[in-house]
């Protein structure tokens, strides 16, 4: 093992924990959070898991059981979860100067500068501080590599006796656990690779570690070779403290009701293009083409099926909402066909470029008025920052109260931390 050490801190049932922070009645009560349009369970507390609710289980199948068992059910509240994630990461930064925010509920921290004896005490202190300051329970795994830190975090969550912290930089702990964990629990090992490792005779993480790197590479490409090295304590993956620039961007949504007319589809895709423009401007990026798609649902088996997409090319790279909306609605009209009940639509773009460095079109060949467009977009974004997203939108995108196709969040909790009108109110007795 090297002197390098990474910690992975992970919020326990993060979406559910965020709901519990603002409602003390949810403690020790089964709670689940649903995906868009209240489709399926994407977060479950321990109590909900004990009732047999599986990840991704459609809500319509468990609705009656949830009512009988007293399961508290919530629609996704991404504004709340994103803000709580930012607060948790602010606490992490007090414990390590180098952090990679890996996902909304997971972050890697570099603990290499700490003495070995100080790593577990710091992890315990960090867990207690995060819980005290944000209310979010976490588990921390420590390893010589990111893969081992992820593995240690898995152990910390599965073994309550460890008190939420597992340190695989400790040789005793390392030797104890890697012979007890199946290969399928390794970070990044899906069902297909798990079967390949089984065919190679691997029954535990220790068996994967001891594979010949050439055999691992042959079975799982260079990814397999790196995996073996990481399990041996040789770091192949460094922290990404600065998130890499986006290569692509997509805004897709399932409709709350089927869409059967052109005007509604145009409005929905225009709304997606509006959101796409916001995302691109936030990163200083632009695109010179967009792909528009929409399709029916395979669940409507008694109705005709159709899935269609088209690419619309712009004269030059842009992140102007009005330009993107015009392109998106053109794409819809190009491939629209009556007689179908569409269930989902989206707009996707790839090969993004920094707007400032993008090539301009020749004058007279569709060159866009960037300067005036940029000023308008700045004003648009400023209004939406001040008054809330969607306060000002292009007319083609429609307005939220009248968007019958829009994603439904019928059981969403208040956005306690980001909306003044939804701040919790305490009434005096």
UniProtKB/TrEMBL annotation:
A Pfam family per the record: DUF4113
Enzyme Commission code: 2.7.7.7
UmuC domain location: 6-190
InterPro entries, per the entry: DNA/RNA_pol_sf (IPR043502), DNA_pol_Y-fam_little_finger (IPR017961), DNA_polymerase-Y (IPR050116), DUF4113 (IPR025188), Rev_trsase/Diguanyl_cyclase (IPR043128), UmuC (IPR001126)
Catalysed reaction equations from the record: DNA(n) + a 2'-deoxyribonucleoside 5'-triphosphate = DNA(n+1) + diphosphate
UniProt keywords, alphabetically: DNA damage, DNA repair, SOS mutagenesis, SOS response
Cofactor or coenzyme needed: Mg(2+)
Main function: Poorly processive, error-prone DNA polymerase involved in untargeted mutagenesis. Copies undamaged DNA at stalled replication forks, which arise in vivo from mismatched or misaligned primer ends. These misaligned primers can be extended by PolIV. Exhibits no 3'-5' exonuclease (proofreading) activity. May be involved in translesional synthesis, in conjunction with the beta clamp from PolIII.
Subunit note: Monomer.
Membership in a protein family: Belongs to the DNA polymerase type-Y family.
Protein name: DNA-directed DNA polymerase
Gene that encodes the chain: umuC
């Amino acid at each position: 093992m090297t002197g390098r050490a990474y910690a992975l801190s992970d919020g326990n049932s993060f979406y559910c924990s965020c709901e519990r922070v603002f409602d003390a009645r949810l403690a020790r009560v089964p709670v689940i959070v649903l995906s868009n349009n209240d489709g399926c369970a994407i977060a479950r507390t321990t109590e909900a898991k004990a009732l047999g609710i599986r990840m991704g289980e459609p809500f319509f199948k468990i609705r009656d059981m949830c009512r009988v068992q007293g399961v508290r059910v919530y629609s996704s509240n991404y504004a709340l979860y994103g803000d709580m994630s930012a607060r948790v990461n602010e606490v992490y930064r007090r414990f390590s100067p180098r952090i990679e925010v890996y996902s909304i509920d997971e972050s890697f921290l570099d603990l290499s500068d700490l003495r070995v004896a100080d790593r577990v005490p710091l992890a315990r202190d960090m867990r207690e501080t995060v819980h005290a300051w944000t209310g979010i329970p976490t588990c921390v795994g420590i390893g010589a590599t990111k893969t081992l830190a992820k593995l240690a975090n898995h152990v910390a969550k599965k073994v309550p006796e460890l008190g939420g912290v597992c340190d695989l930089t400790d040789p005793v702990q390392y030797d104890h656990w890697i012979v007890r964990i199946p290969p399928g629990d390794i970070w990044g090992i899906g069902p297909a690779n798990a079967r390949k490792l089984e065919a190679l005779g691997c029954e535990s993480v220790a068996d994967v570690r001891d594979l010949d790197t050439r055999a691992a590479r042959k079975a799982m490409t260079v990814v397999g070779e790196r995996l073996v090295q990481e399990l041996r304590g040789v770091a192949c993956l460094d922290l990404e403290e600065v998130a890499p620039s986006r290569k692509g961007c997509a805004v897709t949504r399932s409709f709350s009701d089927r869409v059967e007319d052109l005007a509604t589809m145009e409005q929905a895709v225009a709304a997606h293009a509006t959101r796409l423009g916001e995302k691109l401007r936030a990163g200083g990026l632009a695109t010179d083409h967009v792909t528009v798609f929409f399709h029916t649902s395979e669940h409507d088996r008694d109705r005709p099926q159709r899935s269609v997409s088209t690419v619309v090319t712009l004269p030059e790279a842009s992140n102007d909402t009005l330009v993107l909306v015009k392109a998106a609605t053109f794409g819809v009209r190009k491939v629209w066909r009556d007689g179908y009940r569409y269930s989902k639509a989206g707009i996707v773009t790839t090969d993004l470029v920094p707007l400032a460095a993008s090539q301009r079109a020749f004058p007279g060949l569709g060159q866009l008025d960037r300067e005036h467009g940029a000023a308008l977009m700045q004003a648009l974004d400023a209004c939406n920052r001040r008054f809330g997203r969607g306060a000002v939108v292009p007319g083609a995108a429609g307005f939220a109260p009248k968007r019958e196709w829009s994603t439904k969040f019928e059981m969403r909790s208040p956005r306690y931390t980001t909306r003044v009108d939804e701040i919790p109110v305490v009434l005096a007795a």
